[in-house]
Structure formats: structure tokens, C-alpha cells
Recover the amino acids of this structure.
DNA sequence: AGCCCCAATATTGGATACAATCAAGCATGA
DNA sequence: TCATGCTTGATTGTATCCAATATTGGGGCT
């Protein structure tokens, strides 16, 4: 809906951010100004400004005289971020519970349906080939985002919306998926959690909706940290 | 302690931000790149980058081809921000309640003491001259900040700390004071709220501490909105 | 007088030029 | 062989230049 991009710099920041999120520039990798400038067919000047914005949002780190790198997250950092995210989305849904429309609830149901179907498919696919991983998953990510976005939208709090979005952008798609696509149990757990959220908000219950949402997010964070410490690497 | 300023741009952003907070550039006023460049004795380039950071943090607004203005807040915006801030500081104190040290609690007590003394003085001064307003108040702001900063620090969550700080910077000192320094009752109410927070955290009670904190902040926000709609103007 | 259009001016936006800094690699010598 | 210091190339940081755009003020027309 709302285009945040004022002009060049804003859209550059978005496009770079999207590429980071998509994993094209993985965490820890350097972002060379000249390379980006060439890629987007502009000079270094607007690139630098875009990078400053991403720095302020915590998407990248900026070492003096050494340039920017995609921010890599350690376990502690992820724990911190998920604590905050759980809190913010918890607030969002408790606000949303009061004002959410039937149409919005229907949208959530739609996203949830798609979500659950994709999970079933993925589990089925794995039964024959256990290595099936990220192939069909993009649509999962999408419907998951849809689900959460409706809530954030329905909260009616612009500031909150912006902050959650920024927080979200700080992590890569792969990182957020990694822990959750591990096995069928995790995925079904996720579906069930969404179900609980949906049920609570459908009856406009702010307290239960919030509980369900914070639990959902905290649990995701736990899994992520747990997975990260097991796998060692970043992403 | 921690210097966030990498080098020039970071420190410029901080210095500009401080001036905005202090009221030197009031909300709505334009920030001319050339003027800032001259003021800080640098070229426009690093100024522009600093402004982009402040834009990303929501301190200023950037109109294409018209430059930056200090962000002005309407009632709705303040309501949104205070809802979020109440939530975040609520989380902060509930985390802090577990790990806070006696030394930190002592620091909070110290700040609270100073806080209360200043309030008494201000009220006394007003008895003779009702127009006494912002003269002695800086030290109030300072001790208030100290109080809250201990909590944020003790939360042990870096991300949270950063977000609260950014949120805080988005408003000017005068705006935050305006509603609270209106009359003695408001000021004493504030002191009492701090007292309740202090009592709860001193006995390491995360639930009560959080309740007291969110109540304190939401109430401040309410007063601010109320005051703003009465006075009309921004600040 | 009031309104509109256009020119002059101020200001931002982007590209380029140049200086400062860092990293890597190589040669040198103990 | 390994440590050390220098040189060179790559990259960032800042300043300046030029183009694009918005604002302002004045003149003419109704």
C-alpha cells in the first residue's frame, strides 16, 4: 500500500534490504559501495545514504574505513530480538483483537489454510525424499507473513507496524526458516500455534490472543537459538 | 561508556539529534544541509548521511527535493509511540527484575530521591511565583532519565535498549515535560508512580514491576495527548 | 485589488574528483 | 624460518561540481 520510497535512496535501501533478506548477500558478507553502485546503475553517493539507513535500522554493520557487512546474529542477539518481537506482536494482536474486521479475519484464515496445506505437502514430500527442504517453502514464508501482517495492520498503530517490520528485516529468510523446517513436528507445532491465535482473535479476545502470539514467537525464537547453537554457523 | 559514534557521520547524527531534543531545532523546522554543514564545519556529504540515519530512526522527515524537517507529532502519533514505549519498558523492567543488582537499585533510589526533591522545590517555587516553569527542570529530566536508564540497562537486552533509546529520541525534551510540569498534582503523581516501580523491583517482582511501569508510561502518554489537544500546538 | 504565469533564486539530488585509510603481499634481515 | 617494515592496490570518506527541482517574487492581465 503505502510506498515508503521517497525517491532513489529509499528504494535502494529497500532493494538492498530485500536482497539481504533473500540471502543474496549472506550475513557477514561485505557490501562494497562500488559494486552496489554498478549493480543499481547509480553512483556511490545514494548507495552510501541507503547504507546509512540500513545501518540505523540494524540491518547492516558499519566498520569505519572498512565498509559495511551484513549483520550476523549470534544466539544472544536472536534471543534479544525475539523477546522484543514477541512483546511487540503481542501488543499488536491485543490491540487488533478489538478492532479487527471480519474481512481481516477471513484473510488470516486464508493465509492459515495455505500455510497448513503447504506444510502437509512438504511433510508428504519428505516422506519420499527426506532431503526436500526449501523448494516449496517460499509460499510458506509468504502465507506466514500474510498472517502476521494482517495482525500488525489491524493493530492500527503505525509506529508499532514500522518497528516490527524493521525488526523482521534484520534477519534473513533462511535463518528464520532453518529451525522451523527441520522436521514435521516443528512445522505442525507452528500450524497449531497459528490455529490457537486465530481462534482467540476470531472471538476478539485480546488476552488469550496475546498469550498465544507471544508464546508462538518466543517458541520460534527458542527453536532458532537452539538450532543455531547446534549447527554452529550463522546464516 | 559505549561510544556508538563510528566516526564523523555517527557523531554528527548524535549532535544534530541532541540539538533537536534540546529544542534548538523545533518540530516542523527545516534542516538545511548547507547550514548544518557550516555549523559543524564539514561538507554537505556527511550531513546528508547523518540526516538519512535520523530519518530511518524517525527523528526527522524527509520530503523529496524539499529537504528534511524535524518531525512533528500529532496526538495519534504520540498515542502510538507511548503504547509501544509502555510495552517495551514493561518488558525491560520485567527482565530487569530478575537480575538487577543492589547497586543498581541504589542508583534508582538515588535518582528517585533527586527527582522528588526537585519536584518539591519546583512546587514550592511556584507557590510564590506560579509562572516558574522550566528553570529547575533540567535536573528533573536528568534524574528521570537516570531512573529509566538503570532499568533498561539492567534488562540485559541490547536490542531493547537501542529501540527504547531511539523511541525516546524521537520526541523533544520540551514536549515530554509540557504535560507533566503543568501542575503539582501531576508531578507528585509521577513521583508516586516511580515509588511504586521502585518498590516492586526492589523485591524483584517482575509482574508488579511491569504493571507499575506500563501504567506509569501509559498515564504519561495520556496526559501528553490530553495536554496536546488542549494546547493545540506542537512542540 | 486579485490572480496567474514566468523568471530568478535557493536548495536538494547525484556524479565525480580527490584525499585518507586499511589490507595484503613482498622483500629484507636476524 | 619467522618476524618486521615498507610499498602498493583497493576501498572508504569528504569535498566539490553540475543538474534537477521547488520556492519566491515581480510583472502583467482581467
Amino acid at each position: 500500500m503505502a510506498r515508503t520510497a521517497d525517491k532513489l535512496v529509499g528504494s535502494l535501501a529497500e532493494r538492498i534490504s530485500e536482497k539481504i533478506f533473500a540471502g543474496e548477500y549472506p550475513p557477514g558478507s561485505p557490501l562494497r559501495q562500488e559494486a552496489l553502485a554498478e549493480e543499481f546503475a547509480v553512483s556511490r553517493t545514494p548507495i552510501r545514504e541507503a547504507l546509512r539507513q540500513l545501518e540505523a535500522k540494524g540491518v547492516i554493520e558499519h566498520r569505519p574505513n572498512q565498509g559495511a557487512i551484513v549483520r550476523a546474529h549470534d544466539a544472544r542477539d536472536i534471543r534479544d530480538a525475539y523477546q522484543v518481537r514477541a512483546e511487540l506482536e503481542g501488543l499488536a494482536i491485543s490491540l487488533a483483537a478489538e478492532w479487527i474486521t471480519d474481512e481481516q479475519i477471513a484473510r488470516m484464515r486464508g493465509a492459515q489454510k495455505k500455510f497448513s496445506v503447504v506444510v502437509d505437502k512438504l511433510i508428504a514430500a519428505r516422506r519420499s525424499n527426506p532431503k526436500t527442504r526449501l523448494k516449496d517453502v517460499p509460499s510458506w514464508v509468504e502465507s506466514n507473513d500474510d498472517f502476521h501482517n494482517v495482525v500488525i495492520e489491524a493493530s492500527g498503530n503505525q509506529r508499532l507496524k514500522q518497528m516490527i517490520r524493521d525488526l523482521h528485516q534484520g534477519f534473513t529468510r533462511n535463518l528464520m526458516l532453518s529451525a522451523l523446517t527441520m522436521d514435521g513436528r516443528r512445522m505442525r507445532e507452528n500450524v497449531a500455534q497459528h490455529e490457537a491465535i486465530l481462534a482467540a482473535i476470531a472471538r476478539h479476545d485480546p488476552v488469550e490472543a496475546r498469550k498465544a502470539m507471544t508464546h508462538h514467537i518466543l517458541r520460534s525464537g527458542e527453536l532458532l537459538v537452539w538450532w543455531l547453537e547446534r549447527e554452529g554457523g550463522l546464516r
Remarks:
- Chain B has two domains: 8-70, 75-231.
- Residues 7-9, 42-46, 64-66 of chain B lie near DNA strand D (CB under 10 Å from a C1').
- The interface with chain A takes residues 6-7, 9, 45, 48-50, 52-58, 62-65, 77, 80-81, 83-84, 87-88, 90-91, 95, 157-160, 162-163 of chain B (CB under 8 Å).
- DSSP finds ten helices and three strands in chain B.
